[in-house]
User: Fold this.
Amino acid sequence: MLFRSEKPHRHASFVPTARAQGLQEAKVTMPIGDGKVPFLQPMNKEYPWFRKGDAESLPMLFLDNLSTLTGVVGAMTMGIPGIWGAAIPDDFKAAYVKMVYEKVCPGIGFSLLFGNVWYGWMARKLAGYEGRTDVTAIPYGINTPVGFAVAFGIFLPLGFKFGFEPGMTADDFANKIWCAAAMGCFVSGLLEMAGAVTGNFVRRNLSKAAIYAPIASVGFVWLALGPLSKLGKEPIIAILPLGMIFLGFFANGGRGVYGKVPAAILIIVIGTIFKWAGFGKYNPDGDIMWKTVEDSGDYIGKIGTVPFVILQGLPDIGIIMPILAPFALQSFIETMELVEAACAVGDHYPMMEAMLVDGMGTSFGALWGSVLPTTAYIGHTRHKKVNAGCGYSIANGCIYFVMTLSGLFPAIFALVDDVSIGFVLMAVGLLISQQAFEYTVPRHYPALCVGIMIVIFDYCRLDSGDSRVEIINLSAGGGILASFLVAQILSDLIDVRLERALVYTVVSCFFCVIGIMHGNNPVGPEWLTEDKNDLAELTLAINVAPSAANATGNEGFRFAIAYGMLAVFIAIHIGLQKANLIPQATMTDGSPEGEKMAGQAEGKQVEEIGRASCRERV
Assistant:
């Protein structure tokens, strides 16, 4: 998501004028703005498949996805094997890289084709339902922060897990990582679809700080902090892209200074020129780099993905879901807000269908091998301003389908400069972090910051190999679930919403007991074949008896006790609150629902004061 975010409008949306083509306006009344488009609504034949605005929007959406895809694939094929180091044999790494290009990339193509074409179809149905031709499709693509969470939170630890299993071959190693991650992606899509039913309930009962803490933490840590380190390694290549991201993405009120030329293109072009000009001290020489490009031609025409094979990864789903579940929750809430933003500028899409499309696109791609969830993108308002229709969305899906299934992507990746790609992703990470603070009510900033800090510990563990117990205990499972729930508890404490804080504290205690939160649990349960357990693997943390291999016992059990103590502490304060010894709860969290609840509470309070005053006068 490379372009400046548009915060969903909170005011009532305007209602556009109906334009029933070829019919007299006085005789035909079109249903405008109700969002109740039938699933099999006939399309508007006057609505063009492709127009000038689509030609302008297509490069934006294409580059959005290209920067994410190159960044995530780069992290998977270069960053992850580098962190594995000598611990994983070279033939295992080679099989793993081959798996990414021949199995994961084609699966991503299926996912992008599905979602982009469906959103284009939704635009054509809306145009038919409302009798308009100025409808703009909602942009769709790879979920950027989740892609990096998959790379560093799933691929990386799974490599260490499977790499040391006895009798493991290189192909089995790569296949097990792929199946486990793709299966997690499939279930993540199901959770996104469930949001079509539970979305409003979830949104009413979560603070913005908790919703955005996981995505902001991944944006800040893996998308921004990691690439910034490239400045220390290759300053001559990196310094101009660093300046250009702030001119291109943050200057001029977030619109950038380069007009209609996407800043991402300029950054990648400059970096690639510097790369091939030999400005990088640690880059290989030109002959070696060109040989890498030539070798990437071996992937052309090779597709290794097979549908439904990823079901073999079902036994490992317990390791993955603590990482992906909070992102699935955030994703469907984000989709709801993006649909509301589209309604605010006149395109009233059906909410439930949009949420189902995101989940179905993710799960459909996973069945073909994708490990990256997909979602609706920020930026509909920008595409609306250039009068884009449905063509840019459909064309984007078709282009990526051809590019990923033809095997051309490895060659593209070998040609461009990874340092400049990293800085484009840094811009994405900073935009995501900025968006998190914009959506979060200011008094919850401390809670949001704590949520971000938890994932920084994950960076210390995975990127720097820091194995101190205080680092591992907080980062177990990528720290994503802890980032989400801790931020929620702290937000509720700030608001003195103690009953809700108590509920989330008890939930956290339970998650610690079963091993998926703060899951540094070396001692496994009796039903494991070996008396050991991995970070954040589904288990029983109460297995605290020391073993010969590890006499430290399980850390998750100590956290379960700690959250239990916090629950008692909060319960005491609930009693104090009911006795009016401490302030009452602040019911608004900055969302429309929170404002409504606060207004209702205030109205009741005023009504009660009025009644009391009447009683006094009587």
In short: The first helix runs from residue 52 to 84. The longest strand covers residues 140-142.
